[in-house]
Amino acid sequence: MTDVPPDRLATDPRSKFHDAAVLERGIGIRFNGQEKTNVEEYCVSEGWVRLPVGRALDRRGQPMTIKVKGTVEPYFLDTAGDAPAAD
Fold first, then answer.
1. Based on the structure, what is the number of domains in the chain?
2. pTM
3. What is the span of the domain harbouring residue 54?
4. pLDDT in tens, 54-66
5. Strand pairing partners for 32?
6. Are 3 and 72 in contact (CB under 8 A)?
7. Per-residue pLDDT band at 26 (split at 50, 70, 90)
8. Which of 16, 22, 36, 49 makes an SS bond possible with 42, Cβ 3.0 to 4.6 Å?
């Protein structure tokens, strides 16, 4: 695995941009300089994130989302290969 997060990632397993291995590793999103923990999907090259709107659900039971444009900076919460040393 590389230390660069993917350009586009979705948390919905039905999406073609879903990557369970990356999500399992842990990914953080900085959007317009603020940490966001509720991002459903993001795209760095197009500069947008999808955020849930309240607790509203669509007819399929999925959260209603809104696409917000801005600067997207994804990063991994841990670094690959950096495991605590066992004594």
1. 1
2. 0.83
3. 8-76
4. 999 999 999 999 9
5. none
6. no
7. very high
8. 49
Domain annotation covers residue 15: yes
Handedness of CA 14, 20, 26, 29 (dihedral sign): negative
- Supply the DSSP string of 33-64, one letter for each residue: TEEES--SEEETTTTEEEEEEEEEE-TTSPEE
For residue 86, what are its two tokens? Answer: 């066992």
CB 17 within 8 A of CB 45: no
Q: Is residue 86 part of a domain?
A: no
Residue 80 pLDDT exceeds 70 = no
Q: Whole-angstrom Cα distance, residue 40 to residue 53?
A: 11
What is the spatial distance between Cα 76 and Cα 78, in angstroms, rounded to a whole number?
Answer: 5
Identify the helix (H) or strand (E) that includes residue 10: strand 8-10
Q: Is residue 2 part of a domain?
A: no
> Would you give the end-to-end CA distance of the chain in angstroms?
27
Residue 52's DSSP bridge partners are 65
